[in-house]
Amino acid sequence: MSGFAISQVRVRYVETDQMGVAHHSNYLAWFEVARTDLFRQLGIPYPEVERAGYYLPVLEAQCRYLQAAHYDDALLVKARLAEIKGLRIRLEYEIFREGEEKPLAAGSTTHTFINRDGKPVNLKKENPILWTKITRAD
User: Is the separation of the CB atoms in 27 and 73 below 8 Å?
Assistant: First the structure.
């Protein structure tokens, strides 16, 4: 899949330890920023998905920490659709310090489509219009 978004974030003081190094938990939050921007870029802001009656809870999250991010670093977070099936969607991410080519971190998240009752749904069958909006990034 080729759809991707690049989001900009800056490491805030509250996100760091006493040495000015970003805490590992923040990387997943930065993934979320990029995921939200990706959906917005596809023309389906996440609130639209929820208004349609669907949610995308995280089933799995993975992150490889390659280099540390530090207080006040300007970061670029790249998100792309890696795989989408009727029930699931997997996204891949890379985080870069602005102006650098080597990633600081790389990872992925896997989500499932559920309805308002918390039941898994096959979005391709249940809402082909929304499915097409998501998958048109192919």
Answer: no
- For 69, the domain range is 4-135
Q: What angle do CA 45, 77, 70 make, to 5 degrees?
A: 135
What is residue 119's three-state secondary structure?
coil
The amino acid occupying position 87 is L
Give the total number of structural domains in the chain: 1
Length, in residues, of the chain: 138
**CATH of residue 125:** 3.10.129.10
Q: What are the residues whose beta carbons fall under 8 Å from the beta carbon of 17, sequence distance 6 or more?
A: 23
For the stretch 84-121, pLDDT in tens is: 988 999 999 999 999 999 999 999 999 999 999 999 99
What amino acid occupies position 28? L
pTM over 0.70, yes/no: yes
Each residue's pLDDT tens digit, 11-70: 999 999 999 999 999 999 999 999 999 999 988 899 999 999 999 999 999 999 999 999
